[in-house]
Amino acid sequence: MNSVLDPSSNNTVNTSEETKPAEQPRPRRPRGFAAMDRNKVSEIASKGGKAAHAAGTAHQFTSEEARDAGRKGGVAPHVRRGRGPRKPTVATPSSNDVSSEGAKPV
């Protein structure tokens, strides 16, 4: 007979662990800038931008740089996931092509 279901079994079970409720994880509280008032964050960012321009270290994108950055941004997530950059779409082979049978679509 199953010793767990047998009341005459000599095995003792620690019931204090079974009756203890599971501890609820504390909710995460925002830290840093996320905990600050939006106006305060904006004020700090504004001071940083002004300081960078005054020091001559601020950067303003040209339209060509912005275009290039946008292109890279569209490719970068695929590289991080290990799938590589997007490949241009190519025409699908005809249905009578024997070499394409069983191949996974790209």
Automatic annotation (TrEMBL):
Pfam families: KGG
InterPro entries noted in UniProt: Stress-induced_KGG_rpt
Coiled coil: none
Residue ranges with Polar residues bias: 1-16
Region (Disordered): 1-106
Residue spans of biased composition, Basic and acidic residues class: 17-26, 62-71
Bias (Low complexity): 45-59
Highest taxon listed in the record's lineage: Bacteria
Protein name in UniProt: General stress protein
